[in-house]
Specification:
Bound molecules: adenosine monophosphate
Number of helices: 14
Oligomer: single chain
Strand content: 25-35%
Shape: globular
Largest sheet: 6 strands, mixed
Low-confidence stretches: none
Helix content: 25-40%
Structural class: alpha+beta
Length: 608
């Protein structure tokens, strides 16, 4: 039976889930972990590593270990936030051909969707291993505040990974879906989602009829756990500078170790009130002496260092409630999502703001993937009477005369939706209009984000204001925008689907899809070879253990000599084949080993 998986593609960790027999379950990776680090690395030998194994080697291979690409996806290279990331990460971000950030790992340059695709492909494989079947369809989650370009780029990543992303849903919406699934409740719920890289807050109405309606949503795509880690890093760096007059930032390896230590300390301080950051041999002094970093960090110090970050999330909550026209008292349940919501101070501040303790019923790391899986199953099974009504997080419109922004679809409109507005020419004999599609909340167009542009030509020559053009905006269920402009007189039309800001061309995308497919085949072959090698090794060791016993039984007989020689030859051949790395040949040798083992067991068994 066809399965749709739900993937929470996180900044730091990803999670995959599926609905089985009506129950959503999270799928553990091979190591038994239910979340997988969203990390990709390339080793010196050119091998790609994804997940825990990439994370484990990141300190010694910092320049070629990528994390937090979600912060870059769908953004332009000159975006201030990309520029900020440039300074803080140990891997190399360079400018791509479409003014997009690209990542250099060893001698190859990758687009951001390509890196995200490697993570998605890993999650797909985890699910395939578990389900024992190929998986082609997925629902992928994104922060509610992701704009159109970021959503498109995430879809591109899915396509590269060989996944048909049948729906993109917002993370808090997915969380609410998982929270409300099968509960038969009517409630207004606030989902506070603070993950590694992003913050989202959504107010939702859950109804017992199966309707999940988002009332309002807001967030900040550059506010998350990493900012908390950064505060700790800055504090450690400043302390070290005071003590030794050395800037640890100069050293990539030191920076990576600091990053790991800062995150670890932050996490520890969720359960203890003080922790020691201990980094021996962090750097050498000018006199070539090894220097160590050792500092005590208390929970209250951490709270002080990050107070403004927490405050910012609360301000956004306040704004969202206002947008929704609701009062704190209207919120009947608060659901916490994201690893950062384990921080006690955050739980306290959220509880204080909403005036109620948050729900303890959901697992903050797994709830989003579970919601995505539920939505995936519902899309596959049309019988399910579950309706998800999400909203658009940004106002959409076009630029008009004077550099103003004319709104077509206001923020927090339920999607899918479509709105039209009539415009006229502004100059005499104007035969073409340029439509600049934008999103944002400012009245001044230049302060908003340009999503795309197109030109409607062939207008009738007439006095300014006489030719009418109807502009229609449409947002589909994925939150992706398309725009049409129509000359009302001639019916002539032009339209665009706003493409990702990463702007990968069709050729580039096709090329990446082929690369990823080749990788999947090679990886499966590698895995099969590894499995066969293990099987052969076990058989050889068992045969070798049996050998002296067999020798004892058959000693002196021609049959015995013959059998022993044959057995030794089979073992030797299997060993050589293992080194050659040909799976098919090794499988044949495994069969020969199994025959030998059976024969040996028979001989020993007869006397034993
Ligand atoms: P997510 O994006 O939801 O996977 O959240 C990841 C973020 O949660 C990272 O910044 C982690 O450092 C942080 N995190 C995970 N566990 C804890 C914890 N026990 N205490 C504080 N932060 C945590």
């Amino acid at each position: 039976m066809e399965k749709v998986i739900g993937i929470d593609l996180g900044t730091f960790n990803s999670c995959v889930a599926v609905v089985e027999g009506g129950t959503p379950v999270v799928i553990a990776n091979r190591g038994g972990y239910k979340t997988t680090p969203s990390m990709v690395a390339v080793t010196e030998a050119g091998k790609r590593l994804v997940g825990h194994i990439a994370k484990r080697q990141a300190v010694t291979n910092a320049e070629n270990s990528v994390y937090a690409v979600k912060r870059l996806i769908g953004r332009k290279f000159n975006n201030p936030q990309v520029q900020a990331a440039l300074k803080n990460v140990a891997y190399r971000i360079i400018e791509g051909p479409h003014n997009d950030p690209r990542i250099q790992l060893r001698d190859k340059v990758y687009s951001v969707p390509e890196i995200s695709a490697m993570i998605l492909q890993e999650m797909k494989m985890i699910a395939e291993d578990y389900l024992g079947q190929e998986v082609a369809k997925a629902v992928v989650t994104v922060p509610a505040y992701f704009n159109d370009g970021q959503r498109q780029a995430t879809k591109d990543a899915g396509a590269i990974a060989g996944l048909d992303v049948i729906r993109i849903i917002n993370e808090p919406t997915a969380a609410a879906l998982a929270y409300g699934f099968g509960k038969n409740i009517d409630k207004t719920v606030a989902v506070y989602d603070l993950g590694g890289g992003t913050f989202d807050i959504s107010i939702m109405e859950i109804s017992s009829t199966g309707v999940f309606k988002v009332v309002s949503t807001a967030g900040d795509t550059f506010l998350g756990g990493e900012d908390f880690d950064q505060r700790v890093i800055d504090w450690l760096v400043a302390g070290f500078k005071d003590e030794h007059d050395i800037d640890l930032r100069q050293d990539r390896m030191a920076l990576q170790r600091l990053k790991d230590a800062a995150e670890k300390a932050k996490c520890e301080l969720s359960s203890v009130v003080e922790t020691e950051v201990n980094l021996p041999f962090i750097i050498s002094s000018a006199r070539n002496e090894a220097l160590h970093l050792q500092r005590l960090l208390t929970r209250s110090q951490l709270e002080e260092l990050t107070e403004d970050l927490i405050k910012r999330t609360i301000e956004i909550c306040e704004m969202t409630l206002e947008e929704a026209g609701l009062d704190k008292a209207d919120i009947e349940e608060v659901v916490l999502v994201g690893g950062m919501t384990r921080v006690p101070r955050i739980q306290q501040e959220v509880a204080k703001f909403f005036g109620r303790e948050p729900s303890k019923n959901v697992h903050p790391d797994e709830v989003v993937a579970l919601g995505a899986a539920i939505q995936g199953a519902a899309l596959l099974d049309e019988q399910q009477d579950m309706v998800l009504l999400d909203v658009t997080p940004h106002t959409l419109g076009i630029m008009v005369v004077g550099g103003y922004f004319e709104e077509l679809i206001p923020q927090n409109s339920t999607v899918p939706t479509s709105r039209s507005k009539d415009f006229t020419t502004v100059r005499d004999n104007q035969t073409a209009v340029k439509i600049l599609v934008m999103q944002g909340e400012s009245k001044r167009a230049e302060e908003n984000e340009l999503l795309g542009e197109f030109i409607l030509t062939g207008l009738r020559r007439a006095v300014a204001g006489q030719v009418e053009i109807e502009v229609t905006f449409e947002i589909n269920a994925d939150g992706i925008v398309s725009v049409h402009a129509k000359d009302k007189e001639t019916g002539k039309e032009q339209s665009i689907t706003v493409t990702s800001t990463s702007g990968l061309t069709k050729e580039e995308l096709d090329h990446m899809i082929t690369d990823a497919k080749d990788y999947a085949v090679a990886r499966r072959d590698d895995e099969e070879l590894e499995k066969a090698k293990q099987e052969a090794t076990t058989l050889i060791s068992e045969i070798q253990k049996l050998m002296p016993k067999v020798e004892e039984v058959v000693a002196g007989s021609d049959f015995g000599r013959d059998a022993m020689e044959k057995a030794k030859a089979v073992v030797d051949k299997a060993k050589t084949t293992m080194q050659q790395g040909d799976v098919k040949a090794l499988r044949e040798q495994i069969e020969a080993l199994q025959r030998t083992q059976r024969m040996f067991k028979g001989v020993v068994g007869k006397v034993g």
